[in-house]
Amino acid sequence: MLDWLGFGSHDHAASSHGHHNHGSGPHGHTHGVVDATIATTDRGIWAIKWSFVILAITAVLQMVVVVLSSSVALLADTIHNIGDATTAIPLWIAFMLARRKPSPTFTYGLGRVEDFAGIVIVLIILFSAIVAGYQAIDRLINPQVVTHLGWLTAAGIVGFLGNEAVAVFRIRVGREINSAALVADGYHARTDGLTSLAVVLGALGVWLGFPLADPIVGLLITIAIFGIVWQSARAVLTRMLDGVEPGVIGEIHHAAQHVAGARIVDAKARWIGHRLHADIAIAADETLPLSEANKITTALEDELFEHMPALAAANIRFSAGHEQHALPPSHGHGEHDGHKH
């Protein structure tokens, strides 16, 4: 199962020790057979492809009803669905580029293109919000009669079902391959599904004799889209600035507690696309022979990959420094670090 998700093969980088292979447990794989990135990006491309198909069909069906009913709420929802389908394009390009092997120029590969795709997605969502908002405000100023309320209700329900299906695809696969862009896009689709249900409320308001219910719902949908822009932008920019979730560093320290002699003095981590890379310094015991030191780094690698399935590379080194270094609060004690990074 780990191999299928792309987490069974790792690029270990324990500097100066040369351990690139696990001989036991769930990580007993030989490197160079199947590149983990290909497995995960194939999975990502599969999710994107089906998301695009579902949303494209949903948008076409809704557009037909927009023409029939003149509903600006449904128009806003349709614009959003078109924008959501369009986001499949930068994601697909990013996943394809991520499959390329590292080069002398791009020594870590092109995984960061995925973060750039996330920014493009945020801009697409922002554009759809501006267009939908303009249409809703214009309809409030210049009201029009909304017709075909039955079809309008059906279109709202279709929009909800289509977006929920896409949300399930993107969130599930995004979590499997640890892609912030894909997960963000999935939550965007889920919220879009809820805005589709708002179209139904607008149709009900018009049916009850309140014609402004339609543009008001359109405006509420616009506000919801702006909320998605803010949330998605925060998540993607955090990754682009080498930010990690608070629990990542804590998990590195937790893994080290299972290895005798692996006293961490510094730990850093960053995401490159959907692959986590860690740089770890452990306290050096100068009395240890090289063979024992190698056993410690190998054991720590095993524990790290056991505890962190999204980890792609662990660069472990020894530190002989004596400066105080704070650990995460959950560990409640200090260690030492004498390296500049």
Can you walk me through this structure?
The chain crosses the membrane at residues 52-76, 82-98, 119-137, 149-171, 192-210, 216-233. InterPro entries: Cation_efflux, Cation_efflux_CTD_sf, Cation_efflux_TM, Cation_efflux_TMD_sf, CDF_Transporter. One of its GO terms (molecular function) is monoatomic cation transmembrane transporter activity. The chain is mainly alpha-helical and 341 residues long. The chain folds into two domains: 2-6 and 244-336, Alpha-Beta Plaits; 35-240, Alpha-lytic protease prodomain-like, CATH 1.20.1510.10. It has helices at residues 2-5, 36-69, 72-86, 88-98, 113-141, 149-176, 180-207, 213-240, 246-256, 290-307; strands at 264-272, 275-283, 311-319, 324-326, 334-336. It has a three-stranded mixed beta sheet with strand order 1-2-3, with helices on one face. Strands 4-5 form a two-stranded antiparallel sheet. Strand 1 (264-272) and strand 2 form a beta hairpin. The longest helix has 34 residues, at 36-69. The model is unreliable at 1-36 and 322-341 (pLDDT under 50).
Low-confidence stretches: 1-36, 322-341
What is the tally of helical segments?
Answer: 10
Alpha carbon gyration radius? 25 Å
User: On the 0-100 scale, what is the average pLDDT?
Assistant: 76
CATH class wording of the largest domain: Mainly Alpha
Task: Give the count of structural domains.
Answer: 2
CATH architecture assignment name of the largest domain:
Up-down Bundle
Order of helices and strands: HHHHHHHHHEEHEEE
- Kindly state the number of beta strands: 5
CATH superfamily of the largest domain: Cation efflux protein transmembrane domain
Strand order of the largest sheet: 1-2-3
Q: According to CATH, what is the topology of the largest domain?
A: Alpha-lytic protease prodomain-like
Structural class given helices, strands, pairing? Answer: mainly alpha
Strand content: 5-15%
Tell the overall outline.
elongated
- Main beta sheet, described? 3 strands, mixed
Helix content: 55-70%
Rounded to the nearest angstrom, the distance between the terminal CA atoms is: 36 Å
Pfam family, one: Cation_efflux
Transmembrane segments: 52-76, 82-98, 119-137, 149-171, 192-210, 216-233
Organism: Mesorhizobium helmanticense
Family: Belongs to the cation diffusion facilitator (CDF) transporter (TC 2.A.4) family.
